[in-house]
Amino acid sequence: MTEKFTCLIIGAGPAGYTAGIYASRAGLKPVIYEGMQPGGQLTITSEVENFPGYPEGESGTVIVDDIRKQAVHCGAEIRSGEITEVDFSKRPFRLVVDYEREVFAETVIVATGATARWLGLETESQYRGFGVSTCATCDGAFFKGKTVAVIGGGDTALEEAHYLSKIAEKVYLVHRRNQFRASKAMQDRIFRTPNIEPVLDAVPTEVLGERQGFSRKVTGLRIQNIKTEDFKEISLDGIFVAIGVTPVTDLFVGQLELDAHGYIKTQGVRPLTNVPGVFAAGDVQDPHYRQACTAAASGCKAAIEAERFLAEEA
Ligand code: NDP
Description:
alpha/beta; seven-stranded mixed β-sheet; five-stranded parallel β-sheet; 7 helices; 25% helix; binds NADPH dihydro-nicotinamide-adenine-dinucleotide phosphate
């Protein structure tokens, strides 16, 4: 039997789960499709000190799992499938789960988030999974007592560097400018950590490594100083790329209006997309704040909008 939902939520980070909490309480019986990476980016964030309600700080995984539990407690139904196709041309909207099963929805909240960006070097992709990673909390343990580099100058990079400084013997923090973009609190923490060495004005140009049969390992990173244009090699065992994110919107090309960077366009402070009945929440529509806290708040707004949209229609 074909299923039809009042409110279908795509994505399972703070935005999606919070939308689930509000939509359940509004009686919309929401169904959340969790997709490939339940929990979203918070699951790869080691320690979060700025999500309200956790006075001592907490791991991202615990926080997002708590929001999930709250959504379930309020009545949201959580499913593990991935939405692989959408048709927003008419209502009820048609969506396809795992390439094969059609479902329909009166309203849709898109909360698909964003994924880590890569440098785009050929050698980076050759050593991905063999010493090149975008997730210190996932892969940091492999580098106990070793030397690693983190690339980037934002909060993520500095947080990853700090996390790794407790595992690795030495952490280079390679940034393309001479000023970090990260918050002052994060910078102070880095400058107080003796085994983190900032390498500034440095652009990575090649991942260095060794191959033996099927096995590969990272041995270093070649960087170019943007002022002197000199090249230098740093000996390393691992490289963590932390240079920002790309919104997960491939599914919505041709269906929703996107900006030049691929973010879903919403209307000012309201999470309305260009399609009435489809709302967007969290990092997928937010190139500015990108906090777990702001994502949760926009999930709340999207669910309230969905409720009002249906009420006005009724
Ligand atoms: P950001 O976009 O803030 O930073 C990306 C960094 O990567 C910048 O320093 C940028 O350099 C650098 N960069 C981008 N592209 C390249 C490239 N091709 N080569 C080399 N370097 C590159 O992303 P983040 O993931 O750090 O943070 C995203 C958001 O999440 C921010 O709003 C941040 O505040 C927030 N956040 C908050 C945390 C917290 O509060 N606990 C933890 C983690 C993230 P440049 O500076 O020159 O542009």
